[in-house]
Design brief:
Strand content: 5-15%
Number of helices: 23
Oligomer: single chain
Structural class: alpha+beta
Shape: elongated
Largest sheet: 5 strands, antiparallel
Radius of gyration: 30 Å
Distance between the termini: 70 Å
Helix content: 40-55%
Length: 619
């Protein structure tokens, strides 16, 4: 028999040989996936962390770096010293987090091999190696990849300290350090350590009690310097200021998200669970480790869910990364009873098919995972050099000017200025309108790295109707260059479907609340590849017509309003001039195909202005 044949036979038939061969293969797969493409643009959260390490002393780091942040300070302290040694290049900053992600895979194999058998450990490790969820959060310099490592380490030493035949001081120290690391990394990682700690109290023996209780006390003492910072964090609104409360089906969506948003992968995992359970129904038993797996996955979710519903929204996919391996392990928990040959084939298939799914089917490395700062800065620099920096007025919506300047400084043209950096609606829209009305440049550039009000595009297009170039980074950020005047190289995307004359020429809206308008079905011409409707009107006023609106109103056959949108004329009006007002509506096919549409001017305060040329267009 050839050596290769003997080797393959050993892998297929010898569980110990399988373990020795597959563990390095799984870790190599995890490593290659995590170090590939580390140079993509920093995310908003990463730039937020990096701007908060630029301090001259540790005390300044504490007060300005993480006392006010809402996350424990462990990762921020690490980054503070790491960037001093290796700089702020993406690859250098992210490498430790990618390696931590690989370490998490290793300890997951160890933990669930201890709990349910080596096959379960290998299958769980394989899924952690290729799933997009742990992959993407191991490729960014945030607490998630490191926290996943510490969570698996903590669970490993917790298991050994409680269930090894002979507890040792070394295990107690390792458990205390890894639990403290969880506490310093992320509060949901802290929560998992707390749940495990309390669960362990019900399983200590007279022999293990001194070691276990001592380790718990040690972890608490290690975290005690951070307590006053944590108390401050509890008073910070955090993501609850913008994050929506979770819906009742949030958990189902999260489970689908865990498995690459793939019904195929979810079905595969459930099939393995049911098949292994059926195959070993006589041998299978629901052990305490099955209970641990369910508790450690479900309790963080339930606490986060009800806290988000009743107090402050905090529940996101990312915060459950520390507990999701327990669900994966539970689904594979009965595979230990499978014969070694089919188990080996299953792992080999997953090692090949899993990465192919993430890369080939989900297009992981071509996907835009976060807002794009690097390419946005490069694009702006290209436009500046092509059309003339002085001929473009620029505005951007970004959480901090440093975020875009970090990448602008690396472009050939260097850092450029913006007339506006913030757009949260309200007065920011008024400011944008005044910038547009006072600028004399032939071009206007607008970029956003966080969502902006829908009116923004209309406010700009009313003054700069032509688009030279628009780059959308998969709806997570975008940059557009507009022009005042049209040419063969500039496009206006609106096509007039019908024109509505309010009168033969102009209509005086003074002392009038509602204008003549359009009432009827959606124009048939909209169906020619147009996703949105645009209403526009020209107005003339000596003073800004406060409260006046251009309105879209969609009603069903019963006269019930399906969608109502209004555009504030004061954001478009330049007193003493004819000004164009725009309103874009994208209500979706169902509303458009099953509704009656009204377009009109509403002047509730009966302001004095004149209107003309009400049009509806498709874009």
């Amino acid at each position: 028999m050839k050596v290769s044949d003997r080797f393959l036979k050993n892998i297929l038939n010898d569980p110990d040989q399988q373990y020795r061969v597959f563990v390095p293969l799984i870790l190599l797969t995890a490593l290659l996936l995590r170090i590939t493409g580390l140079g993509f643009s920093y995310s908003n959260d990463e730039l937020s962390a990096l701007i908060r390490v630029r301090f001259d002393s540790f005390g300044e780091l504490v007060s300005g770096g993480f006392y006010v942040d809402g996350h424990p300070g462990g990762i921020q302290v690490f980054l503070y010293y790491w960037v001093k040694l290796f700089g702020m290049g993406e690859w250098a900053v992210r490498l430790p987090f990618a390696l931590a992600g690989v370490g998490a895979v290793y300890f997951a194999i160890r933990v669930f091999g201890q709990w349910f058998g080596k096959t379960t450990g290998l299958l769980t490790g394989t899924f952690l190696a290729f799933l997009e969820f742990p992959l993407v959060y191991s490729q960014i310099a945030r607490p998630y990849g490191a926290g996943l490592l510490f969570a698996m380490m903590m669970t490993h030493f917790w298991t050994r300290l409680l269930f090894d035949e002979k507890p040792r001081i070394s295990l107690a120290v390792a458990y205390a350090l890894s639990a403290a690391a969880c506490m310093y990394t992320h509060y949901f990682c802290f929560l998992l350590a707390l749940i495990a700690g309390f669960t362990g109290l019900f399983h200590i023996t007279r022999k293990s009690a001194p070691y276990y209780l001592g380790a718990g006390l040690g972890a608490a003492l290690l975290f005690s310097p951070h307590i006053y910072i944590t108390l401050n964090h509890l008073g910070i609104g955090g993501v609850g200021l913008w994050l929506a409360k979770p819906e009742n089906n949030w958990l189902l969506k999260h489970i689908l998200y865990i498995f690459n948003d793939s019904v195929v992968l979810v079905s595969f995992a459930i099939t393995v669970f049911l098949t292994s359970l059926f195959y070993s129904y006589r041998k299978a038993s629901f052990s305490r480790f099955h209970l641990f797996a369910l508790l450690f996955f479900l309790l963080p979710f339930l606490i986060g869910f009800f806290y988000s519903r009743m107090v402050n929204p905090v529940l996101q996919h990312s915060v459950l990364i520390f507990s999701f391996p327990f669900l994966v392990a539970f689904l594979f928990s009965f595979t230990a009873n499978l014969p070694s040959r089919p188990a080996a084939v299953l792992i080999l298939v997953l090692l090949v098919a899993g990465p192919l799914h993430t890369i080939g089917v989900n297009h992981y490395y071509r996907k835009q995972h976060f807002g794009e700062f690097k390419k946005t800065a490069i694009l702006i620099d290209q436009w500046n050099r092509q059309y003339g920096e002085g001929k473009i007025t620029r505005a951007i919506s970004v959480n901090n000017p440093w975020y875009i300047n970090f990448y602008s400084a690396q472009t050939p043209g260097g850092i450029t200025g913006f007339a506006q950096y913030e757009n949260r609606g309200g007065l920011h829209l008024d400011t944008l309108a005044r910038i547009l009305d006072t600028t004399s440049t032939p071009f206007f550039m607008y970029a956003w790295t966080k969502m902006v009000p829908a009116e923004t595009e209309d406010i700009i297009r009313a003054r700069f109707p032509y688009i030279i170039e628009k780059v959308d980074f998969e709806g997570l950020s975008a940059a557009t260059l507009y022009a005042r005047e049209g040419s063969s190289k500039r496009i206006s995307t609106a096509d007039t479907l019908l024109r509505i004359d309010l009168t033969a020429s102009e209509f005086d809206m003074s002392n009038t609340e509602f204008s003549p308008g359009y009432s009827g079905p959606v124009p048939a011409g909209r169906m020619a590849g147009k996703a949105s409707l645009v209403a526009s009107v020209e107005i003339y006023a000596d003073t800004i017509p406060a409260g006046a609106l251009l309105v879209f109103d969609f009603k069903n056959e019963q006269g019930e309003t399906l969608l109502w949108q209004g555009s504030r004329m004061e954001l478009f009006c330049k007193p003493g001039h004819w000004s164009k007002v725009r309103l874009t509506a994208g209500p979706g096919e169902e509303i458009l195909n099953n509704s009656q549409m009204k377009v009109y001017l509403w002047n509730p305060k009966k302001a004095r202005f004149t209107a003309r040329n009400l049009r509806i267009s498709g874009e």
